[in-house]
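Field: sequence (string)
Field: structure_tokens (string)

Example rows 1 and 2, in order.
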Amino acid sequence: MVKIIIYTGLSLPFDEAKEILDSADGIEVIYKRPIKRGDLSIALKENPDIIGIIDGVFHQNSAVGHKEILNVIKNGVKVYGASSMGALRASELDTLGMTGIGYVYNQYASGEVDSDDDVAVMLDSETLEALSEPLINMKYVFTNAVKENIITNDEKDELLSIAKKTFYPKRNYAQTLAQSSLDNDTKGILINFIRESVDIKKEDAKELLKTIKQDLQ
């Protein structure tokens, strides 16, 4: 029996995660809420073979520590990270055995972003629903909007500057566009583009689960 523990719920809801990776013959998959300091010590007692870290707390509780992850790896557990806290920690520990996956991980690993503020969101502690927009998603969407000639590089820089100056619990597209100098026509086109864009943190979370599933084969 292969036991897998995945920490998510925010970037990817449990029901959607189970559509990609769920318990089956010879595999037990346990989904848990975003990881916090001390959770891995408890997880080790469950004797997992694989741990996937997607979401984690940043400000509500103490964040999962590097030593905790390294201790898990030392105990023979394969650890994957993507999307949010997992991507951040993987970029810091990829040379020490943690496997990073996806766009957000690559942004951290390359030095394009270096702050936990880029993936931080305000969440409903009961439903795990995101109540704000992560900066990393906004950067991804605005960069693609430049490629599609919807906005200019200067306009992208202005939007990101507004978003970065906004305290993360209050960060969202509507507020950012309202404070920008974009004309109404451009705002309308950009709003439609935003609505059609993928949630890159969610896509990275899916990729982590698909990677684990593939590695089991």
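Row 2 begins here:
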Amino acid sequence: MKFPQPQRLDYIASIINTTTYVGADDFPVLGMNEIHVVTPGDIVFVDHPKYYDKALQSAATIVLINKEVECPEDKALLISDDPFRDFNRLTKHFAPFVASNAAISATASIGSQTQIQPNVFVGNNVKIGDNCIIHSNVSIGDHCIVEDNVIIHAGTVLGGDAFYYKRRPEGYDKLLSSGRVVIKKNAEIGPLCTIDRGVTGDTTIGEGTKLDSQVHVGHDTIIGNHCLIAAQTGIAGCCVIEDEVTCWGQVGTTSGITIGKKAVVLGQTGVTKSIEGGKVYAGTPIEIARDRLKRVAMTKDIPNIKKEIKALKKNE
């Protein structure tokens, strides 16, 4: 998320109520993002020693951290006893929730020849392109973008919050979402799909990609062009699915993996790690489908092998 205009480091410190920071008061702050999408000028937060170096060496130039450490050259530090909490404070300040008072927001933009069926909700600052069909009971959250020639079937929700929580002694603390969902042109989204917005960036469905019914796409995931995703597939957050990938029914993924271009993932496969493109996969844990089928075929011969072993023992 980029701020509407550059901010000063001392102003950012005042929002989170800290007087402990490293850097000039007027050090420029341009936005805030998660570590996988940060660019120079962004704030990134880190609250675990395991990830200190990754955050400090990232493209972000302001690090919100819970320990006083040596500040890398040309960067700034914001010292906080709870970076997770303070990242949420910044989100509330720069991207507060704004309630809608109409089914289709007055700030939404809807292109020519686009058809909006009854009971559709279109949030603040949504952009919908030309020649789209939005079927009944679809909900499109704030700031989402739907490009030209997109079809969204009934009951689908674009822009739900990221499933991202920190465990506290009293329960779970939610990381607030301020990102978007972007649906590229000529895509089709089936009935009852749910596509979460990014925490601070975009969740993207590529050009010409088709999602079947009841597909879930987690926050900040990027699905490439001309993919086919079959029913009841669940794609976790921060995944990258490259162009022309096919996922058959009830595929599930762990977060942060990459599925390579033109890979085919057979039904009910658990994608527990990144996989290369151009191959067919199956099973949990995931493996090359042909290897798995060969092993399954071999297990069917076990009764015959046992009989042969018994026969050999009798003849000894």
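free_text_note (row 2): The chain has two domains: 2-94, 109-291.
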